[in-house]
Amino acid sequence: MIIGICGGTGSGKTTLARKIIETVGRDEVILVEQDSYYRNLADMPLDERHQANFDHPDSIDSEMLVNHLKRLRGGQPIEMPVYDFVTHTREDKSEHIDPKPVVIVEGILIFAEPRVLDLLDVRIFVDTPDDIRLIRRLRRDINERGRSFEQTLWQYQHTIRPMHYEFVESSKRHADIILPEGGNPDITSEFICSLVREKLEKK
Fold first, then answer.
1. pLDDT (tens digit, 9 = 90+) per residue, 39-84?
2. Which of 61, 68, 106, 113 pairs with 82 at a CA distance of 20 to 30 A?
3. SS3 call for 113
């Protein structure tokens, strides 16, 4: 069973995913983050990497992501890439992931890629206001990814915001469940947990 959690940057996708994992149980669920599948920009100068559009579907190695999701669904392990968000490159190491009954895949563009969309049994969209998402993005990029305030704001204005309305917001129509205002992670995780158990019992 594959659950897709989509939504804009800073919407609370990862928080919800972790709540579901805690509720359902780590022995039953694995998390695949679309961010791990960004293309390797090692061949580009660092200044150009900072200017790259990371919010367009072309920035994701969707071929590898789809292949890995199919392998997990088929009961096969994967070697998930490890991405360095400071240098915008893939690290030499990878993360070994063994298959489990439930796979959660989360990312801003998973509903915009038809091949990923077709693999999802449950589609959740976390719909959070722009101002909250921007604040969260600023906090994360400055504290965790080595960006300056000016760099993050430039990226938000030039790529994040326009790509959100072109690809992310428009993909909301594919959702089975839309969580307005980001929803309540505790209540939502309980609901999803019940849904997961029901589907697993049927299978």
1. 999 888 888 887 888 999 999 999 999 999 999 999 999 999 999 9
2. 113
3. coil
Cβ 108 vs Cβ 7: under 8 Å: yes
Instruction: Give the Cα-Cα-Cα angle 11, 32, 23 (nearest 5 degrees).
Output: 70
Residue 83 to residues 12, 95, 146, Cα–Cα distance (Å) = 20, 10, 14
What tokens appear for 109 in the block? 């563009």
- 15-32, pLDDT tens digit by residue? 888 888 888 888 889 999
- At what angle are helices 185-202 and 13-24 packed, to 10 degrees? 50
16: CB partners within 8 A, 6+ apart: 5, 106, 124, 126, 179, 183, 185, 188, 189
- Nearest Cα to Cα of residue 163 among 89, 112, 115: 112
Task: Give every CB contact of residue 59 below 8 A, 6+ residues apart in sequence.
Answer: 38, 39, 52, 53
At 198, give phi and psi (nearest 5°): -65, -45
Among residues 121, 124, 102, which one has the least CA distance to residue 171?
124
DSSP secondary structure letter of residue 172: G
